[in-house]
Amino acid sequence: MITEIHTERYTIRGRSLGGMYTGLHVPELDALFDAGTVLRSGCAARNLFLSHAHVDHIGALPALLGQRGLTGVQQPLRVFAPTEVAVELNDALAGFGRLHRWPLEVEAIGMRPGDEHKVRADMWVRAFQTFHPVPALGFQFFRRVQKLREEYKGLPGHEIGQLRKSGADIFDVAEHLELAYATDTLPEVLRHTPSIMRSRVAIIECTFLDERKPLSKARAGCHIHLDELLKYAPEFENEALVLMHFSQLYKPAEVREILAARLPPELHARTHPLAPEAGPWWD
Ligand SMILES: [Zn+2]
Ligand SMILES: [Zn+2]
Q: Of 47, 66, 108, 181, whose CB is crowded by the most CB atoms within 10 A?
């Protein structure tokens, strides 16, 4: 069983357990996030956004490509990844292809912090820096929307049309922040890229939740501890905050209990742990 979270505009489906596996599918964006586990129902998606190349985030990529091949999808999977990872990924998949006696190919697109890519007519993605000991990125999805400038708002439609035809600069461009994905990172990512906290949906790791992992050790591994996430609580404006990549130190039910006890109630009401409702982790 996978976990499925429904927000007003996006569905987040997947499995994530710190150090073990992380793989998500957001069908409305035709996007997978990390490939540490295969989501059979998402293997025909067009795009994969790889945060970094630790095996709990990339280890299931050959299996994903194998399953994708059986769906009849012709286009290669587009893999957006840190530039260093994109280069090495092609080498690694060439080796896997030889083992498999059938090519395993992707369209690897290297990104650096600040790079933007149009993923469909009305949606862009921008990479941002995360803080982990290997090349790593987060991804911010946004829409660019044209807005008539204040001084032109009272004009009749035909005059606006004429101005437009004449090439006059009558629009401002606004960014609507849709979804942000940040995993395997120190919490400084929130200070560095505060737009994460203003996105409609934010998907963030919160690997450690209480004193069973001292904060110093969480920081040494470059992961977020709830002690530090709580300092940012008043700044989260998201409609939905999805927390994931929990350590197996905690059982799924404990994750829910700890979040209920420690998050401010107003934020807790908007927070969705990517964890089973009860019972064990996905095995
Ligand atoms: Zn991880
Ligand atoms: Zn990692």
A: 181
